[in-house]
Structure formats: C-alpha cells, structure tokens
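batch job 7 of whatever, protein = rRNA biogenesis protein RRP36
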Amino acid sequence: MKEDSSSASEGSRSDAPSVAARDSEDSSDATDRRIHLGKEEGENVPFEQLERMRQHGGITKQQIRQIVERAKASKFKRDNKNRPMEVSSKRPVPRLREVVPGVKRDSRDPRFDSLSGKLDTDRFRKRYAFLYDEQLPAEREEIKNTLQKAKGADRKKELQGQLTRVQQQIREEQARRQKQVIDTEYKKREKAAVKEGKKVFFPKRSDKKRQELVRRYEELKVAGRLEKAMAKRRRKNALKDHRYIPSGRKMVD
C-alpha cells in the first residue's frame, strides 16, 4: 500500500508540469484570440486605449464591444452654446496632405488698364463738377461758421488751415476752367481758319496768359474788386524789387 501511494504521488508530481504547460498554452492562445478579435472589432478605438488594455493583461471581446459602443456614443458637445465645438486633436495626420491653394487676387490700377477705356478728361470733369460747385463751397461755409464759434488758439489755427486749403482748391478749379475756356476759343478759331483755307496758327503760351489776365481783370471789374486786386499786385511787385536794393554799404577807412 505504501508503494502504491508513493507511486501515485510520483505520477501526480510528474503530471503537474504538463498540466501547467497546457494551461499556459491555453491562456496564451486565448490572449492571442482576444487580441485578434480586438484588431477586428476595435479598428476605430484609439491606439492609446488599446495599448493600455494590452499592458493590463489583454483585451476581451466584451471589452472591445464596450469601447466601440462608447466611442460611437460619445459626441463632442459644447459646454456653452456661445462657445465653439471642441474637436479632438488626436487624429492621425495623412501622409499626403491636401493643400487648398488660396485665390490669388490680381490688383489692377484703372488708370493704366486698357479695360477701363481711354481717359476722357472733359467727361471726367463734367461728372465730378459737383465737388467744386456744391460740396467744396458748402464745406467752406461750414468751416467759417465753426471758426467763428471756436475757442482756443490751436483749434482756430487748425480751422483756418482747413479753410485756406478749401479756398485754394476752389481757386485752382476756377483758374483751370478759365484756361479751358481760352483753349476752346483758340481751337474754334483754328478750325474756322482751316475751313477758310488759311494757315493753322499755334498761339504762344504768353498770348494765352495775356488773354487769361484780361479775362480775369474784366471779372474783377464787374465784381468791384479790381482796385483791391491791383493794389495787392503792386505790393507784391514792390517786394520783389526790394530784394535787389542793397540794405547798406560798407564803410571804407
């Protein structure tokens, strides 16, 4: 009886390693199957979660299903309706990026572009004549009224500068229009002379300037400001001549 019991104990001892080996093989096979199932059903699961599950003893099929269901059910929501929706930044970057080229806007200057047509100076001046006939005179009167009510030397100086600029723009436009009238008259005379068979006459710049002065004096005379303008011109010429007069002489011993 003692021999039988000892032989049985020895047999059980000899069978123990084989049983442990079979259990380890079965557990490894089960782990491999679970990992295989995880690869099939957990394609949409983040890599970090899969790696964490592997480190903690493998992944079961039930665990993979739960992770997939939670991933499908989880949606990015706003904490507040006034905030933008937060999207996860843990997304794989594609190997080939799709770069959307920006729309290139070609800048063009209508003054030098043939698409705008040829510049018609007369037509342009007629279209924008209201700036000098209506807007600038109204602005001048407004600045004058503001200047009368203004307080402080700096503010008055600023308004006076604005008034001077506006008046200068109006005077320049009036002088340009007068010059245009003179040029138009000369062109009419030239056309009439050509029709009569005469030789074309090209006036000098001095002749145009003289005729412009005559026209200006006539307008000043009609307005009653001729004497004031002539006195101002005489003072201006006197200042020019005064520059050439020696201020003093050196005394010679």
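notes: Residues 204-241 form one domain.
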